[in-house]
Specification:
466 residues, alpha+beta, seven-stranded antiparallel beta sheet, two-stranded antiparallel ribbon, 13% strand, binds adenosine monophosphate, binds magnesium ion
Amino acid sequence: MLNFAKLGSEFSTKVQTQPLDQPFLIHKNTQLYADLGLVLTDSELLKITSGEEKFEQIEPIASIYAGHQFGHFNPQLGDGRSCLIGQIESNAPGSKRGYQELSLKGAGPTPYSRQADGRAVLRSSIREYLCSAAMQGLNISTTQALSLVGSSTEVYRENLETAAIVMRVAPTHIRFGHFELFASRGQIVQVKKLADFVIEQHFPELQGAKVYENFFLEVVKRTAVMIASWQAQGFAHGVMNTDNMSILGLTMDYGPFGFLETYDTSFVCNHSDHEGRYAFDQQPSIGLWNLTRLADALSSLIDTKQAKAILQTYEQQLIKSYSMLMRQKFGLTQQHEGDHQLINQFLELLRIHKKDYTNSLRGLADLEKLSADDNFSSWLVLYDQRLAEEKIEHRVELMNSVNPKFILRNYLAEEAIREAEDRKCYDKISTLFNLLSSPFEAHLGFESYTQEAPKWAQGLSVSCSS
Ligand code: AMP
Ligand code: MG
């Protein structure tokens, strides 16, 4: 029985997965597969990940949660198209108790599907699968994806498409919204039960009189660290609703996400986000807004004053983590006055001259090449002076270990999707998976994957329909 199921029927419901028609395995994450110690043949894996067979006779469950969507409270959501199908004891990092939950996304309707079909289309599944690998490669905390399965099952969105299933893996898939659901119903016993469960399973080191305060402090910290790394690596989530916020500070629920390409901090990756609520530069403040909703939901366990004080640690933590990452990106190991300004001046030049964020930062390691660009000449004089004060020998290696060469550019995902949809060719998914899983390595011969968006892809937009 799944640990989460032991919480009781108020928290989840048994479901039956609906198998896909003519399923086929498109890709599997062999590293994760090995980390989990799985010993299944590909055909056994396919049966499980396509929803045809249970994993170790475990009854799948879907959980109930609520959430603030685009600022408005929705009192009841839930796993509408995902379900937990298993858990594996493992030494994989991320869980103190060393177990990982297995979850299928797109295995058919659940009691929380509302009017929707419980399915996920191939294109959005490819995006989730590749982005999970990309985030892991960038050392950003994330749910992982073990497998991607395609099928001939037809689903209707704007057009007729085919359904796919991604198997997600995480120590827990619990969201802020799980707490919000019970708090909004005044069910404080259930709020406590859920908090105790998360603490026991995932934060066992937290004990004693201030256990809930320390738990919340840890969630605040993890969320701040996660969002700091989004900002440093140019990731925009796109739908930072509280039902998409992991209680472990994992990036989750990949939808209309996007990586910053041309440097523009007001970047909105989600075509449906008309007001830019989840614009790239809004993410840090939205993180705090979401944590404040979690604090509200935990108000029966944590005194309001205490919660406020804990929330105040967020900004400091985020700035600390972000600054540390940015300093590394610029090859600065010592902390000098004026560094912050130097970094911001460079970013401002990127903005003015509409430069590619990732390529420009990766390019910083090659000063000769950068000096050929007149736009940077005055800044380079300052940077040279500053570098002279550093005594580090392996500056280039250090910088290349934090400035990725490869990110999941929208057009690259789109090319992989079109090849898969139009020609049933999955080679690009495989290539991208390899590059994105180790994005700091040179991967000589794959330079074309670092190129900026071609003309046809410049207006590409991604919406919530998935
Ligand atoms: P999202 O914005 O993708 O995080 O989804 C918001 C809510 O809608 C969640 O409760 C999902 O489970 C649910 N949902 C999204 N798409 C579907 C679908 N095709 N079928 C059932 N539920 C869905
Ligand atoms: Mg979601």
